[in-house]
Design a protein that fits this description.
Length: 197
């Protein structure tokens, strides 16, 4: 598996900097930096978070993960973020995945990238966030599994279309609680009361 880096910044500055908020995300094929929804051109997930939410201007560094097939999308995202003025410095990491839906392959690739990122931004010194609604559903699932297992120390950012957020009364961009222990109770079988003989 080959890895490559590109972007509009280097790692030296990151090593010298103090504690940063670091964002990690995947690209999405033909869904970024804008997407069509209900016949209208709307901001993609990255712009929704980095431009149109309380997280705007909050991140100092951004690692954008891409496969070769979505590299042009990644370049467009980098250009849009740079145009924001208050966007984070973005580095693109290219991962060679034979199957972007294979959970084990994705986890293996992420383990290498996570170590690479840790060289420039040690997890004990920086605060990590993952933009969950990017990449394939399997890529999203791997992040959730890693976070819930405590393997990666990162906070998950979840997004939804503004119209759905309006209906549900929840913010369109919000942090996801990855403590899923309460789910166990939901699926615990209900014991039937013993009938009296």
């Amino acid at each position: 598996m080959g890895l490559g880096g590109a972007g509009h910044g280097g790692g030296v500055v990151s090593r010298l900097a103090k504690s940063m908020k670091v964002l990690i995300s995947w690209t999405g094929l033909r869904r970024e930096p804008h997407a069509f929804r209900a016949g209208q051109l709307v901001p993609g997930t990255h712009l929704q978070v980095l431009r149109d939410s309380p997280y705007s201007g909050q991140f100092q560094h951004h690692y954008l993960l891409s496969v070769p097939e979505t590299l042009e999308d990644a370049r467009q995202i980098v250009r849009e973020i740079a145009a924001l003025g208050n966007g984070p410095q973005t580095d693109v990491k290219v991962l060679q995945l034979l199957d972007p839906t294979d959970l084990h392959e994705i986890a293996g690739a992420l383990s290498i990238v996570w170590r690479e990122i840790g060289l420039c931004h040690p997890p004990l010194s920086h605060e990590f966030f993952v933009l969950l609604n990017t990449g394939t559903p399997q890529m999203q699932a791997v992040w959730l599994l890693l976070a819930s297992m405590g393997v990666v120390a990162a906070r998950m950012i979840q997004t939804c279309p503004p119209e759905l957020a309006l209906q549900s009364g929840t913010p369109p961009v919000r942090e996801l609680n990855t403590d899923f222990s309460q789910w166990r109770e939901l699926f615990t079988p209900v014991k039937e009361p013993r009938s009296k003989a």
